[in-house]
Design goal:
Elements (H helix, E strand, L loop, with lengths): L8 H39 L5 E4 L11 E6 L6 E7 L5 E2 L7 E4 L6 E5 L4 E2 L4 E8 L8 E9 L7 E9 L3
Parallel strand pairs: 2-10
Antiparallel strand pairs: 1-3, 3-8, 4-7, 5-9, 6-8, 9-10
The structure holds calcium ion (CA).
Calcium ion (CA) binds next to loops.
């Protein structure tokens, strides 16, 4: 009968422990590599966010390029507050200079932005601006202007809407 000698037990344990030691060291390195890649991926995803602008009047009506906000008569006018919302997942940046909201059109001198909005609107938040119709009473004329908000929304980078007011009591 042939007998086989068992290999020395200490040698087997030594090899096993050595193997586990090397394996755990490599696993640790791979875990660090995976964590770094995951972190870079999350940072890259965050930077890919896009802003989405929405402008509303103080009655919460959404303004569009076709909208004309009516201030009514000079005597009934008080500052009206408009809000700029960011419905996207990247920062909305108002890029107009020197001010975020600019006045142009037929009668820009009859309007005043008494409070300008914040330049940066983070996702899911909003900022406000106040507009006064400052035409002197009471010649009965109609005075219009265009408010423009330059921003970094990809398809609404120059967002405008109209305003009108009546110079009467
Ligand atoms: Ca848009």
């Amino acid at each position: 009968m042939v007998r086989f000698n068992r290999p020395p037990r200490t040698l087997t344990r030594h090899h096993l422990l050595n193997f586990l030691h090397i394996l755990s060291g490599r696993l640790r390195i791979w875990c660090v590599v995976v964590l770094i890649v995951a972190f870079l991926f999350l940072v890259a995803c965050k930077d890919d966010g896009e802003p989405e602008i929405e402008v509303r009047d103080d009655g919460n009506t959404v303004m569009t390029p076709a909208t004309v906000f009516d201030f009514g008569n000079t005597s009934s006018t008080s500052p009206r507050t408009f809000s700029i919302h960011n419905l996207g997942d990247g920062d909305l940046v108002l890029t107009g200079s020197p001010d975020p909201v600019a006045i142009s059109g037929a009668d820009p001198g009859d309007y005043n932005i008494s409070t300008q909005p914040s330049v940066t609107v983070t996702p899911g938040t909003s900022t406000t601006f106040d507009v006064d119709f400052i035409h002197a009473c009471c010649d009965g004329g109609t005075y219009t202007a265009t408010l423009t908000i330059e921003n970094n929304d990809a398809d609404e980078g120059s967002f405008s809407f109209g305003v009108t007011g009546l110079g009467s009591s």
